[in-house]
Design a protein that fits this description.
By secondary structure, the chain is mostly helical. Helix content is about 75%, strand content about 0%. The longest helix is centred in the last third of the chain and has 18 residues. It is elongated and about 75 Å long.
Length: about 350
């Protein structure tokens, strides 16, 4: 019986997308978090300010005596601790007190981004830019909002404007490089990450993003080198180990790949993709029991993991458990159809048909 492992593609969890050109889903999701974890450049330095308790009877008097800067400062503190509604309320008060406070609009825009209200964020950044058109900070922040929405052209334009205003700020080159990466402009992305690292040789994120770009270009050895550098600078970064594991796997460094996935699991025992990747490797090496253990865990963590069902079905075929194998493969068929993975869908159907002959 012919058994086809859906290994290398599904380790990358490849799924074409009309929104993001040429970037496999697992990598796309990972770098999306990486790229957007680039800090917003806050125009107001967050400082700890002791706010005394205010009785409700004194509230109106307090508001009347509080300056826009006071509201702004307090809003930034709330933003830092994740109190988004409270931060937005303070930024609203700052804007009411001073309608020309570009910083209040920009900070409120940041809060809206974190709250997932991207259009409101863009409106606020537009207002900040209208008030202070020469601030590279506001263009950077709006670029990140465009990036969040998937408007790569708008993001690149804003980051370019910010760079024209301040050509020595590493974060903005990294952000533009990430936008180029998302858009599939790999040479431009590499150029921006190179520039980021020229300005700041210790930028772990830039090494990692450059590594992802090289991974997608097929330059596995260079990608591994970048991920290694990123890990040295930030040894607790799970996504860098996961990415290096994929690169090692593509390069044929099986033990190194397993070691990387082991490290991911050590950091996060609920990282389903690391179990699935390691399980696929064990399956390829005919270590069926280890493969089943990992694939069971991946499915336990993520019951909708189509490729994990597929690989577990293949493992069960090799153990002679055809009824259970067909059940797993049927789950892979159903889930891959729902998720739009045509390759896995067809492979799963083919395996079921062979088993039923």
């Amino acid at each position: 019986m012919y058994i086809k492992l859906y290994h290398f593609q599904q380790v990358l969890n490849y799924k074409p997308s009309q929104n993001i050109v040429g970037i496999p889903k697992i990598i796309r999701n990972t770098i999306y978090l990486l790229g957007l974890s680039a800090i917003f450049i806050s125009p107001v330095a967050a400082r700890e300010v002791q706010i005394s308790q205010i009785s409700s009877t004194m509230a109106e008097t307090y508001i009347a005596q509080t300056t826009a800067e006071d509201f702004l400062r307090r809003g930034v503190q709330k933003l830092e601790i994740g109190n988004l509604p409270g931060a937005i309320e303070d930024f609203n008060q700052a804007i009411t007190t001073d309608p020309n406070s570009a910083s209040a609009y920009s900070n409120r825009g940041q809060a809206y981004v974190l709250q997932g209200e991207i259009q409101k964020a863009i409106n606020d950044f537009n207002q900040a830019i209208e008030i202070a058109p020469n601030s590279f900070i506001y263009y950077n922040n709006r670029g990140l909002a465009y990036l969040k929405r998937g408007n790569f052209e708008g993001a690149i334009a804003d980051f370019t404007t910010a760079i024209d205003m301040n050509s020595n700020f590493a974060i903005i080159y990294n952000n533009r490089g990430f936008a180029h990466l998302q858009a599939g402009n790999f040479p431009d992305a590499i150029a921006d990450f190179n520039r980021t690292l020229e300005i700041d040789p210790n930028d772990a994120m830039a090494y990692k993003n450059r590594g992802f770009t090289r991974l997608l270009q097929g330059n596995m050895q260079q990608a591994i080198s970048d991920f290694k550098q990123s890990i040295e600078l930030n040894p607790n970064d799970i996504s860098a180990y996961q990415a290096r594991g994929i690169a090692n796997l593509k390069q044929g460094n099986i033990q190194d790949a397993i070691s990387d996935f082991n490290q991911v699991i050590q950091f996060d025992p609920n990282y389903a993709q690391a179990y699935a990747n390691r399980g696929a490797i064990h399956l390829q090496q005919d270590d069926i029991q280890q493969a089943l253990s990992d694939l069971n865990k991946a499915i336990e963590i993520n019951p909708n993991y189509a490729s994990a069902y597929y690989h577990r079905g293949i493992a069960r075929v090799q153990l002679g458990n055809e009824e259970e194998a067909i059940a797993d493969l049927q789950n892979a068929v159903d889930l891959s159809r729902q998720q739009g993975d045509r390759t896995l869908y067809q492979l799963s159907i083919d395996q079921i048909q062979m088993l039923q002959q």
